[in-house]
Amino acid sequence: MISSVRGLVLSAVGPAAVIEVGGVGLAVQVTPATALSLRVGTEARLSTTLIVREDSLTLYGFPSADELEVFELLVGVTGVGPKSALGVLAVLSPGQIAQAVSAEDDGAFRKVSGIGPKTAKLIVLSLAGKVFVTTTAAASARPAPTSASANVQAALIGLGWSEKVAAQVVDETLAETLEPEQVGVAALLRLVLTRLGPAQQASERRS
């Protein structure tokens, strides 16, 4: 079992990153926000789990042990594969997942692409008593748009923009969005990058 990897980021595109460990480039499946927060040429550490199938060995990586733990719980739910579990974590933080399970709110999971009503209810039932809302999580848990904002801001900072610019452009983009509560990480990131544009991207990045 490969429980973690630490090494030089060789690439981070889409849902995958390649991290060099001991001269070997390991392909790691990650959420879009995690991929965008990784900077090529810098060192990164991810908590990982290896999913073994008859025709494949796939490594999944997460920036925190909490995300890894929730991922493994989700994969254990009937009807939820690794791809869907990663999709859940791309939309909801571990704290938000714990709150949704505690409140028996299957609607939070139905917002995830590929998760239908039956599977959403099964996730709530299966995770009951296995994930808990801590005081810290309860205090920091936020609705989906705020979580998306935080993830996109982190991604922009990882790509080289300053914290001030990242926060400002995300706030401005959400203010002009008709239904900000429905905007996920991937959609918000596309809107933000479109808003920045090539010229502004060049001028606003940190030197």
TrEMBL record:
Keywords: Cytoplasm, DNA damage, DNA recombination, DNA repair, DNA-binding. InterPro entries: DNA_helicase_Holl-junc_RuvA_I, Hlx-hairpin-Hlx_DNA-bd_motif, NA-bd_OB-fold, RuvA, RuvA_2-like, RuvA_C_sf. Residues 72-91, 107-126 form the Helix-hairpin-helix DNA-binding motif class domain. The keyword Transport does not apply. Coiled coil: none annotated. It is found in: Cytoplasm. Residues 146-207 are annotated as: Domain III. The keyword Repeat does not apply. SMART domains: HhH1. The RuvA-RuvB-RuvC complex processes Holliday junction (HJ) DNA during genetic recombination and DNA repair, while the RuvA-RuvB complex plays an important role in the rescue of blocked DNA replication forks via replication fork reversal (RFR). RuvA specifically binds to HJ cruciform DNA, conferring on it an open structure. The RuvB hexamer acts as an ATP-dependent pump, pulling dsDNA into and through the RuvAB complex. HJ branch migration allows RuvC to scan DNA until it finds its consensus sequence, where it cleaves and resolves the cruciform DNA. Belongs to the RuvA family. NCBIfam families: ruvA (TIGR00084). Has three domains with a flexible linker between the domains II and III and assumes an 'L' shape. Domain III is highly mobile and contacts RuvB. Homotetramer. Forms an RuvA(8)-RuvB(12)-Holliday junction (HJ) complex. HJ DNA is sandwiched between 2 RuvA tetramers; dsDNA enters through RuvA and exits via RuvB. An RuvB hexamer assembles on each DNA strand where it exits the tetramer. Each RuvB hexamer is contacted by two RuvA subunits (via domain III) on 2 adjacent RuvB subunits; this complex drives branch migration. In the full resolvosome a probable DNA-RuvA(4)-RuvB(12)-RuvC(2) complex forms which resolves the HJ. This is Holliday junction branch migration complex subunit RuvA. The gene is ruvA.
